[in-house]
Design brief:
mainly alpha; globular
Length: 115
């Protein structure tokens, strides 16, 4: 991607991190707004960059999806959360947070909640 795409990926990452912090503070609605902004930034990425840039985009998209799962979990929307965790782990199976998303999906599945 060109430099504008990398700026968009970074904006998405920052919004995802802020959303994660908001969830921890019990501000689930605010987290949802931040995640919407992160997803819009990622949707605007044109792609076509180097492998490292594509990996950064993919890892960021997976992290945003996983944090979306955490916001859904905090809101009691368990089935949607399970779907988000499954999607996040599949998007970047070797990503930094993939084990976390798989573990959260497994905990939900153990409780009988599946996508």
């Amino acid at each position: 991607p060109d430099h504008r795409d990398m700026i968009r990926v970074n904006q998405a990452l920052l919004n995802g991190m802020a959303a994660h912090e908001a969830i921890g503070q019990g501000r689930v609605t605010a987290a949802g707004v931040l995640l919407d902004e992160a997803e819009r930034a990622l949707a605007a990425v044109t792609g076509g960059g180097a492998d490292a840039q594509e990996k950064s985009r993919r890892d960021t998209a997976a992290a945003v999806r996983g944090v979306r799962g955490e916001s859904l979990l905090a809101a009691g929307r368990l089935r949607e959360a399970a779907t988000a965790f499954r999607d996040a782990a599949a998007m970047a199976p070797g990503g930094a947070f993939a084990d976390r998303w798989r573990a959260l999906a497994a905990r939900l599945a153990t409780a009988g909640v599946v996508p």
